[in-house]
Amino acid sequence: MSLYARSRGLFSLTLLALFLDLTALAWVVYSAYTDRDALVKIRSALFTESVDERILFELAPWNQPESFISDTEASKAAWVDKFRNEVEYLDQVLSLEGSASDRAKAMVPIFSRNGGAGICGGLGELADVLQTIGKDDGYGCCSDHSQSFIALASLSGIDAREMIHSDHVFAEFYDPEMEQWVWIDPQFALMALDESGRYLSLLELRDRYIEGRPPKFEFIGNEYHDLAGRDPHGHRYYNEASDFAVYSATWGNNVFEQDALNRRLGFLPIPIRQLFGMMTGQIPGFRMLSDGRSERPEALGRQRIRSLGVLAALVVVNLAVPIGLIASWRRSSPGVSN
Question: 16 with 114, same domain?
Protein backbone atom coordinates (compact mmCIF):
# COMPACT_ATOMS: atom_id res chain seq x y z
CA MET A 1 0.00 0.00 0.00
CA SER A 2 1.37 3.44 -0.91
CA LEU A 3 2.28 6.00 1.69
CA TYR A 4 -0.44 8.27 0.29
CA ALA A 5 -3.10 5.60 0.72
CA ARG A 6 -1.97 4.84 4.26
CA SER A 7 -1.96 8.52 5.16
CA ARG A 8 -5.43 8.97 3.71
CA GLY A 9 -6.71 6.00 5.69
CA LEU A 10 -5.17 7.31 8.93
CA PHE A 11 -6.63 10.76 8.30
CA SER A 12 -10.10 9.24 7.86
CA LEU A 13 -9.66 7.17 11.04
CA THR A 14 -8.53 10.25 12.95
CA LEU A 15 -11.59 12.16 11.80
CA LEU A 16 -13.81 9.25 12.87
CA ALA A 17 -12.21 9.10 16.32
CA LEU A 18 -12.55 12.86 16.74
CA PHE A 19 -16.19 12.75 15.63
CA LEU A 20 -17.03 9.93 18.07
CA ASP A 21 -15.20 11.67 20.93
CA LEU A 22 -16.97 14.97 20.32
CA THR A 23 -20.32 13.21 19.97
CA ALA A 24 -19.80 11.34 23.25
CA LEU A 25 -18.68 14.53 25.00
CA ALA A 26 -21.64 16.48 23.66
CA TRP A 27 -24.05 13.77 24.81
CA VAL A 28 -22.52 13.69 28.31
CA VAL A 29 -22.72 17.48 28.69
CA TYR A 30 -26.28 17.55 27.27
CA SER A 31 -27.37 14.76 29.62
CA ALA A 32 -25.73 16.45 32.60
CA TYR A 33 -27.96 19.49 32.10
CA THR A 34 -31.16 18.07 30.62
CA ASP A 35 -31.42 14.31 31.22
CA ARG A 36 -29.57 13.57 34.41
CA ASP A 37 -31.25 10.18 34.80
CA ALA A 38 -29.34 8.88 31.76
CA LEU A 39 -25.98 9.50 33.43
CA VAL A 40 -27.27 8.17 36.75
CA LYS A 41 -28.24 4.90 35.05
CA ILE A 42 -24.79 4.58 33.47
CA ARG A 43 -23.11 5.45 36.76
CA SER A 44 -25.17 2.87 38.63
CA ALA A 45 -24.53 0.21 35.99
CA LEU A 46 -20.77 0.71 35.98
CA PHE A 47 -20.28 1.11 39.73
CA THR A 48 -22.80 -1.27 41.31
CA GLU A 49 -21.65 -4.63 42.64
CA SER A 50 -24.29 -7.33 43.09
CA VAL A 51 -23.76 -9.54 46.15
CA ASP A 52 -25.83 -12.36 47.62
CA GLU A 53 -24.46 -12.18 51.18
CA ARG A 54 -27.12 -10.56 53.34
CA ILE A 55 -24.79 -10.49 56.35
CA LEU A 56 -22.56 -8.01 54.53
CA PHE A 57 -25.25 -5.34 54.96
CA GLU A 58 -25.90 -6.20 58.62
CA LEU A 59 -22.33 -5.88 59.90
CA ALA A 60 -21.50 -3.12 62.37
CA PRO A 61 -19.55 -0.16 60.91
CA TRP A 62 -16.31 -1.26 62.55
CA ASN A 63 -16.67 -4.71 60.97
CA GLN A 64 -17.30 -3.46 57.43
CA PRO A 65 -14.88 -4.55 54.70
CA GLU A 66 -12.04 -2.13 53.99
CA SER A 67 -13.70 -1.08 50.71
CA PHE A 68 -16.28 0.93 52.67
CA ILE A 69 -15.02 4.55 52.42
CA SER A 70 -15.40 6.81 55.46
CA ASP A 71 -14.25 10.30 56.38
CA THR A 72 -11.28 10.72 58.68
CA GLU A 73 -11.73 12.55 61.95
CA ALA A 74 -9.37 15.21 60.61
CA SER A 75 -11.56 15.86 57.56
CA LYS A 76 -14.64 16.20 59.78
CA ALA A 77 -12.90 18.62 62.14
CA ALA A 78 -11.56 20.69 59.25
CA TRP A 79 -15.05 20.97 57.74
CA VAL A 80 -16.58 22.08 61.06
CA ASP A 81 -13.83 24.68 61.57
CA LYS A 82 -14.47 26.11 58.12
CA PHE A 83 -18.26 26.10 57.97
CA ARG A 84 -19.48 26.18 61.58
CA ASN A 85 -20.66 29.78 61.33
CA GLU A 86 -22.35 29.19 57.97
CA VAL A 87 -24.69 26.44 59.20
CA GLU A 88 -26.61 28.20 61.93
CA TYR A 89 -28.18 25.12 63.50
CA LEU A 90 -24.99 23.01 63.59
CA ASP A 91 -24.35 23.63 67.29
CA GLN A 92 -27.95 22.66 68.05
CA VAL A 93 -27.43 19.32 66.32
CA LEU A 94 -24.06 18.71 67.98
CA SER A 95 -25.59 19.35 71.42
CA LEU A 96 -28.26 16.63 71.09
CA GLU A 97 -28.12 13.93 73.74
CA GLY A 98 -29.36 10.39 74.20
CA SER A 99 -28.99 7.20 72.21
CA ALA A 100 -28.12 7.17 68.52
CA SER A 101 -31.82 6.67 67.73
CA ASP A 102 -32.83 9.58 69.98
CA ARG A 103 -30.34 11.93 68.35
CA ALA A 104 -31.14 10.79 64.80
CA LYS A 105 -34.87 11.36 65.36
CA ALA A 106 -34.27 14.79 66.86
CA MET A 107 -31.95 16.08 64.12
CA VAL A 108 -34.28 15.38 61.18
CA PRO A 109 -36.86 18.13 61.91
CA ILE A 110 -34.02 20.56 62.65
CA PHE A 111 -32.82 20.60 59.03
CA SER A 112 -35.66 19.07 57.00
CA ARG A 113 -38.90 20.63 55.77
CA ASN A 114 -39.80 17.84 53.35
CA GLY A 115 -38.05 19.38 50.34
CA GLY A 116 -39.14 20.02 46.81
CA ALA A 117 -39.38 23.45 45.18
CA GLY A 118 -38.37 21.88 41.87
CA ILE A 119 -34.76 21.42 42.99
CA CYS A 120 -33.18 17.99 43.08
CA GLY A 121 -29.49 17.49 43.73
CA GLY A 122 -28.69 21.04 42.63
CA LEU A 123 -28.19 22.87 45.91
CA GLY A 124 -24.41 23.04 45.49
CA GLU A 125 -21.70 22.31 48.02
CA LEU A 126 -22.45 20.63 51.34
CA ALA A 127 -22.59 23.88 53.32
CA ASP A 128 -25.00 25.29 50.71
CA VAL A 129 -27.18 22.19 50.97
CA LEU A 130 -27.33 22.41 54.77
CA GLN A 131 -28.04 26.14 54.67
CA THR A 132 -30.76 25.95 52.03
CA ILE A 133 -32.55 22.68 52.71
CA GLY A 134 -34.50 23.97 55.74
CA LYS A 135 -35.56 27.36 54.39
CA ASP A 136 -39.07 28.45 53.45
CA ASP A 137 -41.19 25.35 52.82
CA GLY A 138 -38.11 23.23 52.22
CA TYR A 139 -35.76 22.57 49.33
CA GLY A 140 -33.94 19.62 47.82
CA CYS A 141 -34.82 16.05 46.98
CA CYS A 142 -34.23 12.72 48.70
CA SER A 143 -30.50 12.62 47.87
CA ASP A 144 -30.00 16.09 49.38
CA HIS A 145 -31.76 14.97 52.56
CA SER A 146 -29.78 11.75 52.84
CA GLN A 147 -26.51 13.66 52.30
CA SER A 148 -27.49 16.19 54.98
CA PHE A 149 -28.48 13.49 57.44
CA ILE A 150 -25.27 11.49 56.90
CA ALA A 151 -23.15 14.62 57.35
CA LEU A 152 -24.88 15.74 60.57
CA ALA A 153 -24.99 12.20 61.95
CA SER A 154 -21.29 11.74 61.25
CA LEU A 155 -20.43 14.96 63.08
CA SER A 156 -22.60 13.73 65.98
CA GLY A 157 -20.67 10.47 66.25
CA ILE A 158 -23.33 8.37 64.51
CA ASP A 159 -22.40 6.07 61.63
CA ALA A 160 -24.87 6.44 58.75
CA ARG A 161 -25.09 5.37 55.11
CA GLU A 162 -27.26 6.09 52.09
CA MET A 163 -29.78 3.43 51.04
CA ILE A 164 -31.69 3.13 47.78
CA HIS A 165 -34.93 1.45 46.69
CA SER A 166 -36.66 1.55 43.31
CA ASP A 167 -37.59 5.25 43.23
CA HIS A 168 -36.33 6.81 46.44
CA VAL A 169 -33.23 7.41 48.55
CA PHE A 170 -33.10 7.38 52.33
CA ALA A 171 -30.60 6.36 55.02
CA GLU A 172 -29.69 3.98 57.80
CA PHE A 173 -27.72 4.67 60.95
CA TYR A 174 -26.12 2.24 63.36
CA ASP A 175 -27.43 2.16 66.93
CA PRO A 176 -24.81 0.48 69.20
CA GLU A 177 -27.38 -0.07 71.95
CA MET A 178 -29.65 -2.01 69.60
CA GLU A 179 -26.62 -3.54 67.84
CA GLN A 180 -28.20 -3.03 64.43
CA TRP A 181 -28.75 -0.62 61.56
CA VAL A 182 -31.92 1.49 61.81
CA TRP A 183 -33.82 2.77 58.77
CA ILE A 184 -34.79 6.44 58.52
CA ASP A 185 -36.27 8.62 55.75
CA PRO A 186 -34.96 12.16 56.36
CA GLN A 187 -37.02 13.75 53.58
CA PHE A 188 -40.41 12.40 54.66
CA ALA A 189 -39.39 12.15 58.33
CA LEU A 190 -40.22 8.48 58.90
CA MET A 191 -38.94 5.55 60.90
CA ALA A 192 -40.45 2.06 61.08
CA LEU A 193 -41.32 -0.17 64.04
CA ASP A 194 -42.33 -3.75 64.66
CA GLU A 195 -45.21 -4.83 66.91
CA SER A 196 -43.09 -4.39 70.04
CA GLY A 197 -42.04 -0.84 69.16
CA ARG A 198 -38.50 -1.76 68.13
CA TYR A 199 -37.06 0.23 65.24
CA LEU A 200 -36.48 -1.73 62.03
CA SER A 201 -33.57 -1.86 59.65
CA LEU A 202 -34.19 -1.49 55.92
CA LEU A 203 -33.65 -5.22 55.46
CA GLU A 204 -36.39 -5.92 58.00
CA LEU A 205 -38.63 -3.31 56.41
CA ARG A 206 -38.02 -4.91 53.00
CA ASP A 207 -38.82 -8.39 54.35
CA ARG A 208 -42.11 -7.19 55.76
CA TYR A 209 -43.21 -5.54 52.51
CA ILE A 210 -42.34 -8.55 50.41
CA GLU A 211 -44.01 -10.94 52.88
CA GLY A 212 -47.18 -8.85 53.10
CA ARG A 213 -46.61 -7.61 56.66
CA PRO A 214 -46.51 -3.79 56.33
CA PRO A 215 -44.76 -2.10 59.26
CA LYS A 216 -45.96 0.62 61.54
CA PHE A 217 -44.46 3.99 60.61
CA GLU A 218 -43.48 6.66 63.11
CA PHE A 219 -43.64 10.25 61.87
CA ILE A 220 -40.74 12.29 63.32
CA GLY A 221 -41.09 15.51 61.32
CA ASN A 222 -42.76 18.90 61.52
CA GLU A 223 -45.77 20.63 60.02
CA TYR A 224 -43.96 21.25 56.73
CA HIS A 225 -43.64 17.55 55.88
CA ASP A 226 -46.13 16.11 53.39
CA LEU A 227 -46.87 13.11 55.59
CA ALA A 228 -47.76 15.09 58.71
CA GLY A 229 -51.12 13.61 59.78
CA ARG A 230 -51.22 11.20 56.80
CA ASP A 231 -50.78 7.45 56.48
CA PRO A 232 -47.44 6.78 54.72
CA HIS A 233 -48.82 3.55 53.25
CA GLY A 234 -50.82 5.68 50.81
CA HIS A 235 -47.74 7.47 49.46
CA ARG A 236 -46.32 6.26 46.15
CA TYR A 237 -42.95 5.43 47.75
CA TYR A 238 -44.57 3.22 50.37
CA ASN A 239 -47.64 1.64 48.79
CA GLU A 240 -46.03 -1.16 46.75
CA ALA A 241 -44.03 -4.15 47.95
CA SER A 242 -42.15 -4.16 44.64
CA ASP A 243 -40.48 -0.86 45.57
CA PHE A 244 -38.62 -2.57 48.39
CA ALA A 245 -37.53 -5.54 46.33
CA VAL A 246 -34.55 -3.36 45.38
CA TYR A 247 -32.03 -3.07 48.20
CA SER A 248 -28.87 -1.10 47.47
CA ALA A 249 -26.36 0.73 49.65
CA THR A 250 -23.85 3.42 48.80
CA TRP A 251 -20.64 1.71 49.90
CA GLY A 252 -19.18 4.62 51.81
CA ASN A 253 -20.17 7.76 53.73
CA ASN A 254 -17.21 10.12 53.17
CA VAL A 255 -19.43 13.14 52.51
CA PHE A 256 -16.82 15.66 53.67
CA GLU A 257 -14.06 14.35 51.44
CA GLN A 258 -16.59 14.24 48.59
CA ASP A 259 -17.46 17.86 49.36
CA ALA A 260 -13.79 18.83 49.03
CA LEU A 261 -13.72 17.14 45.61
CA ASN A 262 -16.97 18.86 44.67
CA ARG A 263 -15.45 22.26 45.46
CA ARG A 264 -12.32 21.53 43.41
CA LEU A 265 -14.41 20.48 40.39
CA GLY A 266 -17.16 23.06 40.81
CA PHE A 267 -16.84 24.15 37.17
CA LEU A 268 -18.22 20.78 35.99
CA PRO A 269 -21.87 19.62 36.04
CA ILE A 270 -22.68 17.48 39.09
CA PRO A 271 -23.17 14.14 37.24
CA ILE A 272 -19.78 14.53 35.54
CA ARG A 273 -18.11 15.26 38.88
CA GLN A 274 -19.71 12.14 40.32
CA LEU A 275 -18.56 9.98 37.41
CA PHE A 276 -15.02 11.32 37.76
CA GLY A 277 -15.06 10.77 41.53
CA MET A 278 -16.20 7.17 41.15
CA MET A 279 -13.69 6.44 38.42
CA THR A 280 -10.88 7.73 40.66
CA GLY A 281 -12.17 6.00 43.80
CA GLN A 282 -12.90 9.24 45.66
CA ILE A 283 -16.66 8.66 45.61
CA PRO A 284 -17.93 5.23 46.65
CA GLY A 285 -19.90 2.95 44.39
CA PHE A 286 -22.89 0.82 45.31
CA ARG A 287 -23.60 -2.68 46.53
CA MET A 288 -26.91 -4.32 45.73
CA LEU A 289 -28.39 -7.36 47.43
CA SER A 290 -29.13 -10.02 44.81
CA ASP A 291 -31.31 -12.62 46.50
CA GLY A 292 -33.75 -13.63 43.77
CA ARG A 293 -36.39 -11.13 44.84
CA SER A 294 -35.44 -8.36 42.45
CA GLU A 295 -34.96 -8.00 38.71
CA ARG A 296 -32.71 -4.97 39.15
CA PRO A 297 -29.39 -6.88 39.16
CA GLU A 298 -30.22 -8.35 35.74
CA ALA A 299 -31.28 -4.95 34.39
CA LEU A 300 -28.08 -3.40 35.71
CA GLY A 301 -26.10 -6.17 34.09
CA ARG A 302 -27.62 -5.40 30.70
CA GLN A 303 -27.00 -1.67 31.14
CA ARG A 304 -23.40 -2.40 32.17
CA ILE A 305 -22.80 -4.45 29.01
CA ARG A 306 -24.18 -1.65 26.82
CA SER A 307 -22.13 1.02 28.60
CA LEU A 308 -18.92 -1.00 28.49
CA GLY A 309 -19.53 -1.77 24.82
CA VAL A 310 -19.72 1.93 23.96
CA LEU A 311 -16.60 2.68 26.03
CA ALA A 312 -14.73 -0.19 24.42
CA ALA A 313 -15.63 1.05 20.94
CA LEU A 314 -14.33 4.54 21.78
CA VAL A 315 -11.10 3.10 23.20
CA VAL A 316 -10.51 0.84 20.19
CA VAL A 317 -11.07 3.64 17.67
CA ASN A 318 -8.83 6.05 19.58
CA LEU A 319 -6.08 3.47 20.02
CA ALA A 320 -6.19 2.62 16.32
CA VAL A 321 -4.94 6.10 15.41
CA PRO A 322 -1.58 6.04 17.28
CA ILE A 323 -1.08 2.36 16.42
CA GLY A 324 -1.64 3.17 12.75
CA LEU A 325 0.74 6.11 12.93
CA ILE A 326 3.46 3.95 14.46
CA ALA A 327 2.95 1.21 11.87
CA SER A 328 3.01 3.76 9.05
CA TRP A 329 6.22 5.32 10.38
CA ARG A 330 7.90 1.93 10.67
CA ARG A 331 6.95 0.99 7.11
CA SER A 332 8.16 4.28 5.69
CA SER A 333 11.45 4.29 7.64
CA PRO A 334 14.68 3.51 5.74
CA GLY A 335 15.47 -0.19 5.72
CA VAL A 336 11.83 -1.24 6.24
CA SER A 337 10.26 -2.99 3.28
CA ASN A 338 6.89 -1.81 1.96
Answer: no
Are 303 and 180 within one domain? no
| Separation CA 125–CA 147 (nearest Å) | 11
Would the pTM count as exceeding 0.70?
yes
Number of domains composing the chain: 2
Summarised one tens digit per residue, pLDDT across range 246-263 is 889 999 999 999 999 988
The Cα–Cα gap between 160 and 253 comes to 7
Contacts of 176 (CB under 8 A, 6+ apart): 60, 100
Give burial (CB, 10 Å; 0-12/13-18/19+) of 183.
buried
Q: Kindly state whether residues 39 and 102 are assigned to the same domain.
A: no
Q: Are 108 and 189 in contact (CB under 8 A)?
A: yes
* CA angle at 59 for the pair 53 and 64, rounded to the nearest 5°: 95
Residues 148 and 235 in one domain: yes
Q: What is the pLDDT of residues 291-325, one digit of tens each?
A: 877 655 555 555 555 555 655 665 655 665 566 55
- Are residue 85 and residue 204 in the same domain, yes or no? yes
Range of the domain at 35: 1-52+297-338
